[in-house]
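Predict the 3D structure for this chain.
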Amino acid sequence: MTRWIVNVLVLLSACGAMCAKSIAQQEHRKPHVGGVLAIPAKGYLVQEIRDGLYWVSDGAYNTMFLVTSDGVIAVDAPPTLGANYLKAIAEVTQQPVKYVVYSHEHTDHIGAAYLFSKDVKIVAQKETAEILARRKDPHRPVPTITFTDTYTLKLGGQTLILDYPGINHERGNIFIYAPQQKALMLVDVVYPGYMPYKNLGIAEDVPGYMDVQEKALKYDFSTFVGGHVTRLGDRSDVELSLEFTSDLYQTAASALNSLSLADFVIANAGTAKDKWDLHNEYEKAVVNRCYNQLLPRWQYRLADSPTYLRDNCWAMMESIIVTFPPEGQEKA
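Done. Predicted structure below.
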């Protein structure tokens, strides 16, 4: 995992100038999407959102922390930031970190939690805590405070509200809401300005992944922190993401309905190498129909759409087949 993270950062660094040039060349053709974040030579950027709430980014991962008169509440601990996360906090306050909130259990977001003081209190949803207890990973200490549905964390006159909306990107993945700052954090679901990462961010539950975006819009927020990509978001980014996933669902369902497996088998059985090859070619054909319809609508609305759109068509197609209710019934 560490080697993979290093390789990703090297590739992102190498791509920086070329990606920036490409975006600049296309800017006149499309609304502002994506974005290039200038990361200082020290390896991270830390900025105040408002009223003691800060976000910190290395250009690939981002998170936030809340400074109070009685200590700091840190959210997540991406290993790409590592010790730089502690440096970023120390840049803006001398207050110690009292709490660490886990958004969910994935290593790429909390794998540097071991760097915090041993007496820090770690807060997470109950299912996240249960998963981490099984992982036995010293880099991801087991939470000391758990909750089922909601938990209000108050410290030094500041508040974070932690809500579990049900399974979405992963079981245990929560909303982290700062009501005073009108900021909402939800990791690995909305990628402000960008096409979602492959397979809808490796969503464990695609119906829940769609529903959680509707639930996000019920909060009163103006700033959105998504855990990835090059900038903060706002309500319009969540609305756009929901529009995309709804379009993806409808288009993938249409592609499936327009090409039945039975008809494809009859037409192609003679050229298939084996049973799985035939099924794989059928899925490729459905995905191609989905991709070819969606790309013209989204390539200038969400950055890097050609890179992961096929993967997201595949993820939605599979979920329609195995998890959504039959056509004509409501998605729930």
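The chain has ten helices and twelve strands.
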